[in-house]
Write a structure and sequence with these properties.
Number of domains: 2
Strand order of the largest sheet: 5-6-7-3-8-9
Distance between the termini: 30 Å
Oligomer: single chain
Radius of gyration: 24 Å
Structural class: alpha/beta
Bound molecules: adenosine-5'-triphosphate
Shape: globular
Number of strands: 13
CATH class of the largest domain: Alpha Beta
Order of helices and strands: EEEHEHEHHHEHEHEEEEEHEH
CATH topology of the largest domain: Rossmann fold
Largest sheet: 6 strands, mixed
CATH architecture of the largest domain: 3-Layer(aba) Sandwich
Number of helices: 9
């Protein structure tokens, strides 16, 4: 598979702060790739370098085969790459349809505006002024503006922040449809269920370094992790009678961990049936992506919480938030 994005040894410093410290990853053409990490990890810096908005201090970067740091390739790249950023500047007094139609005019082969508004769930708001949209509706408009030019590669920066649960699922469908249409997608998100639902591959960065990479199902050894079985100890049963190795008991709730859940459950339920006592509050869980992510990033988050950078208000580099409104012809 060809790489849509290739990053090797990427480095970026702000003064004496090393924000990105030798990051390597690649994004295959046609996949959804998620860049995850705690606040201040270096995700936005990395994306901004890929988008051509920031210079790097070291390493190699290729986006669709071109170096985004080479200004002469900027025009070509802008025609191939779509961006959905936080706080895109749009005309507040234009209608939703006018806004999308105006941006469609910047591209040689834009999507059909009405079909696109339908796709992102803004059909009923076509005539509404942008200033009157809710937060979640504005993000849908951002998404429409990011894809109206049929980009080969789409950067999505926290695409569903502020969405209600139904709108999030709608946005996920849009993103999947785009991928199925052949668009490569690079997204950042703080929602692990979003990464789980969408991403074909993920990279977790913390303090400017990669701490784990893989698929959502295998990240951090998740596929070989222990299954957790929990149940209330039946009335009259002693802990010693439980036919599984117990790892914890809290408030009468017994936890056992196993790498062979089928056999373990068979033993446990057989034991309960023989005794004629139900297993109340029985649950069987594998670690979620969020569990794995939290354990991978725990040490970095503690340091981040006490670092002044976590409180810094990030300013988009000049032009970043305004790009979809600029002419790309
Ligand atoms: N323009 C800047 N000037 C100085 N320091 C910066 C600048 N931009 C980012 N940093 C610092 O670089 C580090 C990485 O920041 P970055 O915005 O890339 O993190 P992030 O992973 O996107 O975080 P978040 O999840 O909070 O958006 C942070 O410590 C941040 O304070």
């Amino acid at each position: 598979m060809t790489a849509a994005v290739a990053v090797e040894g990427l480095q970026k410093r702000y003064g004496d702060h090393e924000a990105v410290r030798g990051v390597d990853f690649s994004v295959a053409e046609g996949e959804i790739f998620a860049l995850l990490g705690p606040n201040g990890a270096g995700k936005t810096t990395t994306l901004e370098i890929l988008e051509g908005f920031r210079d790097r201090d070291g390493g190699r970067v290729e986006v669709l085969g071109r170096d985004p740091g080479v200004k002469a390739d900027g025009h070509w790249l802008r025609g191939q790459v779509g961006l959905v950023l936080q706080d895109i500047a749009v005309e507040p007094y234009l209608s939703v349809r006018e806004t999308v139609a105006r941006n469609a005019g910047y591209y040689p082969d834009p999507r059909n505006v009405d079909e696109l508004l339908d796709l992102v769930g803004l059909n009923e708001k076509k005539g509404a002024k942008v200033k009157d949209l809710s937060g979640g509706q504005k993000r849908r408009l951002d998404l429409a503006l990011g894809v109206v030019g049929r980009p080969r590669l789409l950067f999505l920066d926290e695409p569903t922040t502020g969405f209600d649960p139904n709108a999030r699922r709608g946005a996920w469908d849009v993103v999947r449809n785009l991928r199925d249409d052949g668009t490569t997608i690079v997204l950042t998100t703080h929602y692990m269920d979003e990464a789980q639902a969408l991403a074909d591959s993920v990279v977790v960065i913390a303090e400017g370094r990669i701490v784990a990479s893989g698929t959502p199902d295998t990240l951090g050894g998740r596929d070989s992790a222990q299954t957790r079985i929990r149940f209330a100890l039946p009335d009259g049963a002693a802990l010693a009678d439980v036919p599984l190795p117990v790892s914890d008991v809290e408030d009468g709730l017994v936890t056992a961990e196993t790498t062979e859940p089928t056999a373990a459950l068979h033993r446990l339920t057989g034991w309960a049936l023989d005794r004629g006592t139900p297993l109340d509050r029985l649950t069987v869980e594998q670690p979620t992506l969020e569990d794995v992510y939290l354990s991978l990033t725990k040490e970095y988050v503690q340091q981040e919480a006490s670092s002044p950078s976590s409180a810094r208000e990030r300013k988009a580099p000049a032009g970043r938030g305004r790009r979809p409104g600029r002419s790309r012809s």
